[in-house]
Amino acid sequence: MSLARVLRGRVLRPAADRPEIVDAADVVIEIAADGRIDTVRPPRAGDPAESMPGCVWLPGFVDAHLHFPQTRMVGTASGPLLDWLHRTTFPEEARFREPGLAAAVAARFCTALARHGTTSAAIYSSSDPTATDLLFRALADSGLRGLAGLVLMDRDAPEALCVPVGPAMEASARLHAAWHGHDGGRLRFVVTPRFGLSCTPALLRAAGRFADDHGLLVQTHISENRAEIAATAAVFPGSADYLSVYADHGLLGARTLLAHAIHFSGADWDRVAAVGARVAHCPDSNFFLGSGCMDLSAAQSRGVRVGIGTDVGAGRSFSVPRCAALGYDASLVVGAPQGPAALLWHATRGGALALGLDGEVGCVDAGYAADLVAWPLPPEGDPGSAVEHVLFRFDAPPPAAVLVQGRLVAGALPG
Q: pTM of the predicted model, to two decimals?
């Protein structure tokens, strides 16, 4: 056996299939040359000393929903949602037709992800094919794991952002051919209709066919804002409800990742569970735009796969654990409190399941990719568990080390 790296220390180990985390005080992680974890075992004589004293190892964070061309918009508010899109977001995204800007922001975007311990992310690009290609190039260079897509939109937006069905699907085909499966699957192409309001029925149908033909994940928005829901119903009078808009156009199924899902009824959740769709929970942006609070317990009780999304730039930080902490606040608002361990699980393993990375990431176990974060803990003796320190210490220092497939992408390792 050829080992590329051996780590030792305290480890938070998420369960593979339920929202639980085991705090292991001292274990050894052996990483094979292919970047996968070979063995996780108790220490024995001759093992190296603790790799990162004062830190706890855990799986890299998974961001289930964020927008690359909104990187420079973090902290800008002109909500609610539809007003914010037209006043702030669309003008900024239109600037990404300039390749120099797109390339510079793509590099900045990837640096921000790695610096906050995010090792996998589901990313919306702009509607510009060149900007999307530049995003993939930056992700390839960064070493991060990225699932990204050209944003599909052909109406209800500035002309600079609207791309007709034919050119949009031709660009999607080129990007898919160039990037899907890159570096052993580290990069993947995702079919990304922005939401029903920005897409004609013809574009939605074409997106659904393309996803089916290639077995691709679909990501889009749903039920974020009541005005958005009403406007969607008005432009799709033949569909029974918002979920039906996607179902009627071949976009609702087991490979669908729905962002927000705030204003879902019990019947909506039942339907999502029945088809096996996944959800990105975005509590920070939901608070910031005044959209409401998703009931995470409604998804959990039905076995729906849920990840945490920062939703940058309506989200105010690239930090997935900080966003998960706001999920704690949201759970109190809806009267269905979540424990810290469950929220941290959704920020790691739960996100992996939501992105279809089931056998790849989110666990510190043999066979999984060595996507790991060394998270600094406060001095020994401070109150609180390691899970609470990771989740709730907003002023904690950045991760000391971030690995993807066993390779360092941020921070440093001793020696």
A: 0.98
